[in-house]
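Give me the fold.
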Amino acid sequence: LENYQQALKIRREINDKQGIGSSLNSIGAIYFLQGNYDQALNYLEQALEICQELGDLVRVGRAQNNIAAIYQNQAQYFPALEYYQQALQTFHKLENLPGEAAVTNNIGLIYQELGQYEKSLEWYQNALEIHQANNNKNGDGDTINNIGLTYKLQKKYAQALTYYQEALTVREQINDKAGIGQSLNNIGLVYDQKGEYQTALEYLHQALTIFQEIGNKTEEGAILDSLGTVYKSLKEYTRAEDYYRQALTIQRNVGDRASERITLSNIGDLLVAEKQPEVAIILYKRSVNVTEKNRQDLQDLPLDKRQSYAEKIADTYRRLADLLLQQNRVIEAQQVLDLLKVQELENYLKNVEGNEQISVGIELLPQEQEILDNYTAIQDKAVQVNKELTDLKNISSTDRSKAQQQRITDLKAEQQQIEAEFHNFISNENIVNIIQQLKQKTGG
């Protein structure tokens, strides 16, 4: 990153526009890999403008593809699809088959995230044909992996495992570290679904090591969430909580809303298993409200895409409604289920202002809001410590000052204190009293 920034400074001094565009694109891509989406978008939009002025279509296509990927990671699927379609047209004009295949694969990912699995498989098969025609092993591995993920999401685990293992083989042949880590994660999750938990943990810990080594925070967050899920399956709830909390800290740090809603829901599941329904409801509500914020960004998409996304995220809504019914909180449960009705979804997405209740998601009771505020305050501290620690660790150890090295030590100590606060959260006297008030209010 420092080298690219230095190169950008020099190129600006000599007004080397093509070089400036190239440096901006590269810096944006690095920030994207680090999960710093705001910075990445800033540099990539500058790169796109300069490259369009120069008619440098290769870099225009790259910038369009990278900008789309940022929006995709923020669950803003409409602008993501727009930029991917622009990138596809750009690479098609250039007859740049590797670029065309990469974007085709990414569009498949969008449809997969929207729950339109047959459509995503069509795009993946198209991408795979282009990759294989060009003997592009890198892209080949990515697309084979994504086909596996689509089957996994449809609970077709045998087919998913076949594709994941094939993708891992391809990625190992070309030493694609990030790809290897992703494949190991995905294989681990299939073994978790099959109940082979120790095998799952072996794969996931290998994946975590890789992503920590290469500094890919978004994927690191995904692996931590996966580890939490396996430990939850093993009923090792304290370890599961630790991993989920670490995942949530990273997801909030990098702005990965799509993953944040999943981890919040997973923490809710964990609290149900620990017989803490009142706090589980709060985390489920938070997950639903993050999801509703994501859905606001889908309002310009066609109805079939919006509806398939609603079906994909429905499980958390139903678990929340079921838990509310168990607590005899019938009106709140009905509000949750109303969000899943297709007609209300149509109205909501066509005219957000027309239905204020739906646009804000599910309301938290005053006691729930107080508990969430306390939880969020600890989480905010964790996010700040994580961000500062990541920035310091990005400085080469040979270039760090003594003060910076000492700060790293201090921050690690702060992390341990924050972990203790999380572990003691539910047993904290103040929280226990608020939960008791909540039970009295709701009749739980």
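The radius of gyration is 23 Å.
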